[in-house]
Each structure stands twice: as C-alpha cells, then as structure tokens.
Amino acid sequence: MADIILNVEVRDNTGTGGARAARRAGLVPGVLYGGSKDPVAVAVQAKEFRKALYSGKLLGHMVTLRHNKEDQKVIAKAIQFHPVNDQPMHFDLYRVDAHQEIRIAVPVHFTNHELSPGLKRGGTLNVVHHEVELLCHADEIPERLDHDLTGLDIGDSVRMSNIVLPKGVSAAHADRDFVVATVVGAAAQIAEEAAEAAASEAAKEG
After folding, report:
1. Do 91 and 34 share a domain, yes or no?
2. Sheet holding 170-171, edge to edge
3. Are residues 64 and 154 in the same domain?
4. Which of 35, 78, 82, 184 has the largest count of CB atoms under 10 Å?
5. Which string of b and e fits 54-81 if b means at least 16 CB within 10 Å?
C-alpha cells in the first residue's frame, strides 16, 4: 500500500476554540492518542490531509506521522466531516508499533454478482455488515475483504466463517459466526415461487 506521510504541527490551543482557530488557519485539527504517552493536539494542512484522505489509504491504515523531522507510525481510526460540505473537520490518530496486533474494521467487498442465481432472478443483496472487525498486525491490515457470490440463491447467506481471511488475520469476534449478508427476494417473488413449488408437489401427488 502507498506510504502516506502526514506532516503535523502541535497545537497549543485545545478544545473547541482551538479547533476552530486551526480550521480558520487552513488546517484540519486532530488528536494523537495511544501508547504510554499523553494525548497530543495536532493539525495538518487541509490540502495535504484531503489528498491523503481521498487516496483511500488513510482511514484504517498505518501511515507515517512526521513532526520536526521525527517519524512515528500511527493509524487514523476516526474522521469527522462537516454535515453540509462533507469536508474533514477533525481526526483521531493512534500510536502503534508496526508489528503490534490491533483490532480494526475492514470493509467487505462482494464480487461476481452476475454469477449468483438469486440475484439473476431478481433478488437483492442485503448487506448486514459493510465492515467487519479483524485482529491483525498493524503493518498487515488488509485493504478489504473480497467474497465471491457465485452460486448464491435467494435465502442463502454469507457468514463470517465463509469469508476467506489473509494469512495472519483473524476475526475479532471468533466466537460469533454472524451473518454478513443475505440474498433476499421481493415478498411477491417469494410467494410466487412458494406457490409454484406447492403446485408442483400437488401435481406429483396427483
């Protein structure tokens, strides 16, 4: 994955007033947490932050934080956006060691929709969890998890145990085999297919 570097400056003014002042100065305010050190209020040039954000490699990935020529590895775990213009307003960073095991949410992507009999017959994919929590080393976070929908019919479901995880990665909730997505049909379609099945059984018995 691309190595993103965030050049930060430390903010002396904290709280809501300090964050507003940073934004007026063309910065995106944030806070650095984690490890044995105290939280530190920081800020990044808005243009630089947006570039990193829109690369798709910032949120949920390990990146390099640079301050006064000193680097440290961090993970961006939360970003707040303006409710109207959708611009980044605040971010949270967490200090990590490159080989430290962390818990992190990773998006699930579904492939081969056209090879699902249920979807071909007019069903829809009902995604229950767009992201799932994983345990992995900070330098081995998957970009996403892909699951093949080939062969799935209406009524079939995709459980966490069905998703193939990369080597060294495990589900954060290993004791719960929860449903990630299901292939569902419209109520009218399900009723029609049930009626057809019943008619077919009746014809056989007759």
Report:
1. yes
2. 145-148, 101-111, 131-137, 170-171
3. no
4. 184
5. eeebbebbbbebeeeeeeebbbbbebee
